[in-house]
Protein: Putative secreted protein
Organism: Proteiniphilum saccharofermentans
Amino acid sequence: MNKLLLKISIVICLLGVFPFFAWSQQSVSVTNFKNNPLPKNPTSLKILGIGNSFTDDGMQYLPDLLKHAGIDNVMLGRLVRGGCSLEQHHKIYTSGEAGYPRYEKSYPGKNAWEKVKEPCGFVEAVADKAWDIIVIQQVSELAGVYESFQPYLNELIDAIMSPLRKVGVII
């Protein structure tokens, strides 16, 4: 029952974190981006959410859900700025400023949110760990508007992937 509850809770959280990803027939083209599959039965998993209040809300109870499900090998990070759009994430990234009020992590075995830094920048949080998954969220009123994603989404993905390519992790 606990595993079923965890799966349902994660789906609900993901729906809250990733609303409106129906881009009809439009696709995202990312230069030199390879979408590697998640490892099967990983010994650990590191997930970073970069977004706004939906990211905050969607991830708030994940540490507690993981704890109650007996899962202690997941590190979570969240970098949140209320009402932040992809364009604003991009502006924070390109300016290099610490444009997010806080950066928090939930460490494996602890399963509770802990403050890492206030304020924090985009590059600093992305470079903090070798994240397995990074989620970037669009503000809800623009979530279904594909035209509002570009060029910001591609450039943010490239900013995340570039350091990995330099060390040979991504081809």
In short: The chain has six helices and five strands. Confidence is low (pLDDT under 50) at residues 1-33, 166-171. The helical segments are 2-17, 53-60, 62-68, 86-95, 122-128, 152-166. Strands lie at 45-51, 74-80, 102-106, 113-117, 133-136.
